[in-house]
# Entry
Amino acid sequence: MSEAIDAVRQMFQAFATGKIADAQEYIHPEYINPATLERSEKRGPENFTDSIDWLRNVLFRTSLRGNSLPRGRGVRHRTPGDERAAHR
# Structure
């Protein structure tokens, strides 16, 4: 059982760090991420590393997008009669 636990720990570490060069050492050749079925036929370490790359890319871009506006320059929703919001 410790081999399985070690593999899961390595998978979590890959998600956290993006280090995937050694994925073939702990990912089964028939591994599949069900979320990739619509866009890929890859299996095993290649499927796992593609998933890591995709997820980290999405999260990184999202965090940059969320912090890209200077403070105080975000979108403000106006309500009727809110004169201050119209002049910002």
